[in-house]
């Protein structure tokens, strides 16, 4: 019997990830029974961090980056097994991306004015201990990304992870603290709780030692943070439309849209959730999607079945979120080859599988009479979230018109959605995109407060 070496390696890696999920270590660094304990520990660590030089902070961040890359596959497999969502290979890429392209201390800069009346500096200073509420869609990626940025700014952080991703999130917290200790830093630069709940999040949001809260999740959690009385950074929901006009490279547009839509089974909030295509090229676009990009076009009857499966009287069917196209089709009795990666159909913009953010590789295509009609439909579908939008066009004037009309934190032109976070595009990576509160793509400087230092009539040597 021939032994499949790759299969054996995959089994071993799955077992390792499962062991991490079932392991109950008594020495989980940074993980506490009680939110108050976690905040107190992070406060003590911050007293050390704020006295560190920028070089010392960067040394810890470098160790976090290295640790993340070393454990990227374990974290990816843990997340898929614990949450039941996403794609292991894509999650590995996301961890590599967050390790390599999340800004560190280089993002902490000084502004200076020098003139006849002296010298004025504006420095970026730490808030202290930051509270962070993280999602189950990108659990460890968000924990690591936020920690790097917050630590670079001189802060420490306390997490209240999503209950569906506790073990993955807390394993990331442990790795971060191991990295800090290995680089000569303090323990508890990132803290969490063993059993995060609504009550533990309320403790965080009302605690006197938490001046800033960063929330990455749905509209409910962001609203709660904004009503807490604390300063809040809110990364909320999106329903990003991809507009395709007749000037676009239609074949490339089909490839880019499906690559973006299916990345990690459509879990990223920036991913293409629906397409608005000008009528004259809609058939060509769908043809490329089916013939070249692994899409399966469903009938009206199948649309109804899928709608009833995916959307329940209580909202989205959580058993469908983050599942691949083959699994979703199997749930409605359709058996397809493993190369099918996206479900497509044509519908009106009001169709529930189009107007709702699904976080599944289901892509509704809405026809538009002309460009103005397409912009109007895309703006309606984005629902004023001001999060992300995409366009495939070679007409700069049209791209400009669309950008102004949709007014999102992210606009990707002629590329897959993930180009927005540095994967196949320029710029840095982040997993906290604060569309609702206006900070946009967060980085280390986002988690600092500005402090002005003035020296009058001195230190100008011009």
Structure, briefly:
Helices cover 42% and strands 19% of the residues. With 462 residues, the chain is an alpha/beta fold. The chain folds into 2 domains: 5-236 and 440-452, Aldehyde Dehydrogenase, Chain A, domain 1; 241-426, Aldehyde Dehydrogenase, Chain A, domain 2 (3-Layer(aba) Sandwich), CATH 3.40.309.10.
Could you explain how this protein is built, in words?
The protein is an alpha/beta fold and 462 residues long. The protein has two domains: 5-236 and 440-452, Aldehyde Dehydrogenase, Chain A, domain 1; 241-426, Aldehyde Dehydrogenase, Chain A, domain 2 (3-Layer(aba) Sandwich). It is built from 16 helices and 20 strands. The chain has a seven-stranded parallel β-sheet, sandwiched between helices. Helix 4 packs across helix 5 (88-101). The N and C termini lie far apart (82 Å). The mean pLDDT is 94. It comes from Lachnoclostridium phytofermentans. This is Aldehyde dehydrogenase EutE. Pfam families: Aldedh. Keywords: NAD, Oxidoreductase.
- What class, by secondary structure content? alpha/beta
- What is the CATH topology of the largest domain? Aldehyde Dehydrogenase, Chain A, domain 1
Number of helices: 16
Distance between the termini: 82 Å
pLDDT averaged over residues = 94
Question: What is the C-alpha radius of gyration, as a whole number of Å?
Answer: 23 Å
Count of strand segments: 20
CATH class of the largest domain: Alpha Beta
Q: Strands across the major sheet, in which order?
A: 11-14-15-10-9-16-17
Q: Which sheet architecture does the biggest sheet show?
A: 7 strands, parallel
Strand residue percentage: 15-25%
Which CATH architecture of the largest domain? 3-Layer(aba) Sandwich
Level of helix content? 40-55%
Q: In the residues, how many domains can be counted?
A: 2
Q: Per the principal axes of the C-alpha atoms, what is the gross shape?
A: globular
The CATH homologous superfamily of the largest domain is called Aldehyde Dehydrogenase, Chain A, domain 1
